[in-house]
Structures are given as structure tokens and as C-alpha cells.
Amino acid sequence: MTTVRSPRPRLLSVVGLPMPLELRESARARRMTLRLDPARGLVQVVVPAGLAEAEAVRFVGRHTGWVQARLAKLPPALPFTEGAHISVLGRDHIIRHEPFIRGSGVREGGEIRVGGRVEHLPRRVRALLIAEARGLIGDRARALAATLGARVKAVTLRDTRSRWGSCTSTGRLSFSWRLMLAPEAVCNYVIAHEVAHLCEMNHSPRFWALVTKLCPDALRARDWLRRHGPALLRIGGPAAPGQTEP
Ligand SMILES: [Zn+2]
């Protein structure tokens, strides 16, 4: 099978909209679709490869109400900048840029301090939180699994859009690093959820009984994620294109 390489996404301005959309041609798309990317705060229009741009503009023009409503409802973006306040595991932290700090930086006493050049600050804060997530979430997942007599094969951290965690049948767990930006109880719930999948690869009553045993506050945490999850995607900005979490 040959693969058709689609051109890179480009911006598409449409009269009546406050910001351009991202136009992406897809070899697999059979029709035009609109989707919101909350992490990047933009609306994407996916079109079949080779479609005339004027067609896409007309399509978006018929749906400007939908686009405007989605953009208006986006939680505010909260970039990682000097002096910004972010919540880490439910505790308020202020971001400090200290150019001469060596190494990867530090989170202590309600501050996140990173060094290096100022333009690298967002990336460094993100890397610091991911490194911490790997240790913290990994340790907790292994400890919880041990109480069930199960074993975690590996833990990976990602920047997922629609799932906070996942578990494979081979015992590989994956989590969104953004759980570090949620209250600790919420982070613990997602860990308990994925660890419970090591024993029950389904969402049966038996599975939920196991989750509740590992995390009695599961219901409240799920509710929190439903209401505040989209806002977590707006913190710190998305990974640069092509960048995956280590
Ligand atoms: Zn699940």
C-alpha cells in the first residue's frame, strides 16, 4: 500500500470568525468535519485531500455559529510564564524564572523554579512536572497494584487529549502528565482506575467495586474531571508539533 502524504495544516481565515481555523487535508477524510482542539484553543476543519479552499470556506461559513459558541466556551489559556500561578496536586504554586539555576529546576515551598533561557521556560516547567509525574504516579501505581497482587509492567506519561489514563492487557499503564495539575485525590483516582484494569479489563460492576476499594472518593473525582478536565488542557500550552513526552 502506498501512503499519500497530506500537505501540512495551514490557517484558514473566515469572515465573521474572531480567529483563523486550522485547515487540514486528510487522505482518509470523505467529507468535511469541524473539531475543537481545546489544548491549542483552535478549531480544525478536516477536508478530503485536494478539496478547493473555497469549498472549505463555504462549509465553515455555514457553521460559524457552532465555531463561535465553541471558542467562547473555551476555558482561559494559562501559559507557563514567570509569575504565573498554577495549581499542582491541589496546591497553589508560582512559577519563577531564575536564569542561573542549574539542572532541571525544583518544585518546593509553593514555587516552581527553573533556569535556562527565558524562551525555554514553558518547556522546562513542563519537563519538570513530567519527570515528577513519572516518579510519583509510577510509585503509586506499583504500590496499589501490589495490594491487588498485580504487577505493573511499565508506566508512560503522555499529553493525551481525551483520556487521562489507559491500561493494556500486558500491564502497561499510561497517564496524562496533566494529572499533576489536578487535585491529588483526582490524580489518585485515575491511578486507581488504571490499576483496577490490571485485574478487570472492563467497566463491569466488579471493576467499579475494585476502584472504590482502592479509591473511596472515586465518584467525586470523576465528577471533578468531567467539569474541570477541559481546563487542564489549557494550562501550559500543548507540546510542540511532533514532540512526544519522554
Ligand atoms: Zn477504564
Verbal overview:
α3 packs across α4, α4 packs across α5 and α4 packs across α6. The C terminus is likely disordered. The chain contains six helices and eleven strands. It folds into two domains: 64 residues, no CATH class; 148 residues, Metalloproteases ("zincins"), catalytic domain (Zincin-like). The chain is globular and about 60 Å long. The chain is 35% helix and 21% strand. Zinc ion binds next to α4.
Shape call: globular
The ordered string of helix (H) and strand (E) elements is: EEEEHHEEEEHEEEHHH
Strand proportion, as a percent range, falls in 15-25%
Q: Strands of the largest sheet, in order across it? A: 1-2-4-3
If helices are DSSP runs of H or I spanning 4 or more residues, what is the number of helices?
6
Please report the distance between the alpha carbons of the first and last residues. 31 Å
The pLDDT mean sits at 91
Supply Rg.
21 Å
Give start-end ranges of low-pLDDT stretches: 241-246
Which CATH architecture of the largest domain is right? 2-Layer Sandwich
What is the name of the CATH topology of the largest domain?
Zincin-like
Counted beta strands? 11
CATH superfamily of the largest domain: Metalloproteases ("zincins"), catalytic domain
Helix content: 25-40%
At the first level of CATH, the class of the largest domain is Alpha Beta
Bound molecules: zinc ion
